[in-house]
TrEMBL record:
Family under the similarity heading: Belongs to the 5'(3')-deoxyribonucleotidase family.
Keyword Hydrolase (UniProt): yes
InterPro entries membership: 5'(3')-deoxyribonucleotidase, 5_3-deoxyribonucleotidase-like, HAD-like_sf, HAD_sf, Nucleotidase_putative
Entry keyword Hydrolase: yes
Enzyme Commission identifier(s): 3.1.3.-
Protein known as: Nucleotidase
Top-level taxon: Bacteria
Gene3D superfamilies per record: HAD superfamily/HAD-like
Record key words, sorted: Hydrolase
GO terms, biological process: deoxyribonucleotide catabolic process
C-alpha cells in the first residue's frame, strides 16, 4: 500500500495553462497571450458573451484536450511519484470526455490510479471521497475551498488568472520542479514529527 494519495487537477496544472490560447486566437481572431487572462472566467476575461463562448468550448473541448501540451516538468515528477504515491486526477471536465482524457494520458505515458471527471469545479466532494492528503490545482477558489474544507495543503500553480490572496495552507508554486521540492520538504517534516511521536 502506498503511503500517500495526491489529488491532482488536469487542465492548467498537468497540462500547460496556455493550451486554449491558440484555439481562442484562431477561432475568435484574437492575438492574446496567457498574460492577458487575468480571471479564470474566459468569457469575462476576453469580453465574449458567455453563451457564445460556452457553445464554442463545448464544440472544441475534445480537440483542445486531445492536443494539450504537458506542463513543463510534469511528466518527470509524476512518473517518480507514481512509484511512491497514489495519483488521483480530479477534473472539472465532464464525464463524456473520459475516453479523450484517458487516451491523452496514455499517449503522454502518464500513469494514474484514477481519473475522475466530475463536471463541476466543486472538487471538495471528490477530494474527500478519495481521502487525498494533498491537492494540486490552478483555480484559486478551488484551492482555497479544498484547503479550508479538508484541512490539507494545496499547491496552487501560479498563473496570471489566480493572483488573489491565499491562506497559509495554499502554497504557490511556479512549476513542477518547485512542487516536487515542496513535497519532499513536507514529507520530510511529517516523517520527523512521526518519529517524535
Amino acid at each position: 500500500m502506498k503511503e500517500m494519495r495526491f489529488g491532482i487537477d488536469i487542465d492548467g496544472t498537468v497540462t500547460c495553462p496556455t493550451s486554449l490560447i491558440p484555439f481562442i486566437n484562431e477561432d475568435f481572431s484574437l492575438n492574446i497571450t496567457l498574460d492577458d487572462i487575468k480571471t479564470y472566467d474566459l468569457s469575462e476575461a476576453l469580453d465574449i458573451p458567455m453563451e457564445r463562448f460556452r457553445d464554442w468550448f463545448d464544440e472544441r473541448e475534445p480537440v483542445i484536450y486531445s492536443s494539450s501540451p504537458l506542463a513543463e516538468g510534469a511528466k518527470d515528477v509524476l512518473l517518480k511519484w507514481k512509484e511512491k504515491f497514489q495519483l488521483f486526477f480530479i477534473s472539472a471536465r465532464r464525464s463524456h470526455l473520459l475516453e479523450v482524457t484517458e487516451k491523452w494520458f496514455d499517449e503522454q505515458d502518464i500513469l494514474y490510479d484514477r481519473i475522475e471527471l466530475i463536471g463541476s469545479h466543486d472538487k471538495v466532494g471528490a477530494a474527500k471521497e478519495y481521502a487525498v492528503d494533498l491537492f494540486f490545482e490552478d483555480k484559486h477558489d478551488n484551492a482555497v475551498s479544498i484547503h479550508e474544507e479538508l484541512n490539507i495543503p494545496v499547491l496552487l500553480f501560479n498563473t496570471p488568472y489566480n493572483q488573489d490572496p491565499v491562506p497559509d495552507g495554499v502554497i504557490r508554486v511556479d512549476n513542477w520542479a518547485q512542487a516536487e521540492k515542496w513535497v519532499e520538504a513536507w514529507l520530510h517534516s511529517k516523517k520527523r514529527i512521526h518519529q517524535l511521536d
